[in-house]
Every structure is written in structure tokens, then in C-alpha cells.
Model the fold of this input.
Amino acid sequence: MPSKDYYKTLGIDKNATESDIKSAYRKMAKQYHPDLNPDNPQAAEKFKEVNEAYEVLSDKEKRARYDRGEMDFDGANYGGFNPFGGGGFSAGGFDDIFDIFSNFMGGGRSRSSSAAYNGSDITYKIRLSFLESCKGCSKEISFSRMEKCPTCKGTGAKDEKSSKVCDKCNGTGQVQFVKDTIFGRSVSVKQCDACGGTGRIITDKCKDCRGTGLVNKKKVISVHIPPGVENGQVLTLRNQGNASRYPNGFNGNVLLVIEVEPSTVLKRENLDLYVEVPISFSLAVRGGEIEVPTLNGKYIHKIPEGTKNNEVFRLRGMGIRNERGSLGDLYVKVVVEVPKSVSKGDKDAILEFEKNMSMRNYPNQQKYNEEITKLYK
Ligand SMILES: [Zn+2]
Ligand SMILES: [Zn+2]
Done:
């Protein structure tokens, strides 16, 4: 039997799932982390045990061997285990662990350091008519954004002599942050606090931007809205957002939030369109032309004689065509509208018409009458 009970160390039982193990580890590692327990050798020892247990139990293969009692993890095998150096970790485990640590250590290392140097995003709501959202359109949008100050070309300095290379970071904008822990040395890179990450110290500020290097400008751009966008969809206009205050940073993005004004006549689902057309019962009987709204104007559709109430006609390819070439259909549902408050003369005419109808024209009524008769036999 292994000399150590890793399950007990993490406070879980033998049936624990991967996520149980991870969450138990997060909890324990946080509780006993040396940074949070300075001058507490017991916590440090416990932290080491917790890491060792996690190292084994989080690895399927190692866990299986441990469960079978094949490995004696008495510490010797894992001597020199260093959570910061990554030496003892499987490739998958390391990222997880780093995430866990950066969560409560205030982020020792920025994982996407370049993104942090880009300008911020701008959210812009754009309202489209129903047809515009289906067919796509071009729109001009007007908004304010931060741009590099033209006076100082974004440096923030009054002139070339008004700034110098930052002593603290030698112009790199970054400083190394070294920390010794009982497990080894942890090195992380942080933005230089002396120059704010720009690499230069300004001695005399540009008046137009007050040393920030950025000014607020109104911007008008033309945007292409592809056909088939939906309400709530967000389109990203790359690098059209606020400029960065760092020399090598990109502009942020403009996040275009689509708002579609719904149509009272046409409804849509994905690329298909739906319309309900009210017709008279006379037209349903005789058949004939109905007017249907499409994305390209009104369209005359012929319905056959004896069209039923709620009958649906599918007009292929008359829905939305997206930019990938997929094409939807238009579904036309006819709903018979029964006339209300007709004159005595009209009623007589309808009665005359009914008198001439044979029951052959009403198979449903005929069947219904038969069923009722059967019911009381
Ligand atoms: Zn300026
Ligand atoms: Zn600096």
C-alpha cells in the first residue's frame, strides 16, 4: 500500500471525479499557499503535500497506478517538485495550476500580454429594418474614439526633447518580477510602473493631449452588414476602436450590436421567411392570385381551386440568401377570413349557393355525421 493517502490529503473519497479533485485542490492550495501564510511552516508543509496529491490524482495514469498500489509515492519520487518551474507537472496540469495561482496571487503573469497593450473596444448599437437585416446593407456609423494625438504623434511629450528613455525598464515598458518561494524562483513580467508601460518618461507634456498621447475624435466609417444578421448578433470591426497609448499597441475593436426592428408581416427563422395571408372563402373555393411580400418586392402567387384553410405553400429559394450562398424558403400560409355582418341579400345568395352543393363537396362533414350516428346506435 502507498504510504500516503492522497485522497485524505485533498479531503475527497476514492470515487472523486476529475472536477472534484480539481475543486478540492483549488480550495486546499488556496488555504495553504505560502504567500497567504507567511511564517507558517506547517502551512508550507501542507501545501507541499496537497500539490503532491494533486500531481498524482489529476493524472489518470498515475492515479490508476496509485489506486492499484503500484507506486510508492513517499516523496522521494517527487523530490524537487516545483509548481512554479513546471518540472513535475504534466503538460495539461501546468496551465490549470497557473490559472489557479494567478486567480489568487493577483495575476503574476499576463497570459495575453499583447492584448493588454491594445486600445479598448467600443460598443456601438446599430438599428436595422427587417429588410435590411435580411438583405444586408451598407451603413455609415458615427462615433467618438480615442486616436493618437496628431500634435505629439501619440508620444504625449511636448517635443522630442521632452521625453527620455525610462531608467527602470530601459525603454521596454516591462519589468521582471522575481519572487523566491520555498519551491524555487518565480519570474513574471509586469508593466513598468515608472513609465506606465510606454518605455519613456515625459518631462514636458503635450498640451493638446495633456501627456496621454490620445485625443478624442469623431469618426465616421462605412460598414457592410452581411445579409441574414439577427437581432442581438454582434459584428466585430477589427481595430476600429480606441487607439492604444502604447507605441506598438493596436486599436481596439468596434463591437457592432445588431438591433432588428421586427416586421409585423414577415417572420423569420434562420434563413426561412414566414407570412400569413388572409383570403376570402370565395377565393379559397375558386383559387386565384394572392399578393405575397418577398425580400425583393411583392410577388403574385397562384393558389389552386379548393385551397384549405391554413394550407401552407412553400416558395423555394425565396427566403434569405446569406454570404455563404445558403438560401432559405418563403412559407406562405393562407387563412380563410369569414365575413361578418353580411346583408340579408348576401345571406340569401350564400344559402342559394349551399343548396346547390352536394355532400360530396363536404367529405369531413359527411364523415362527422356518420360518426355521430354510429355513436348513438
Ligand atoms: Zn499630444
Ligand atoms: Zn518604464
Summary: The chain has four domains: 6-107, 122-260, 271-338, 346-375.
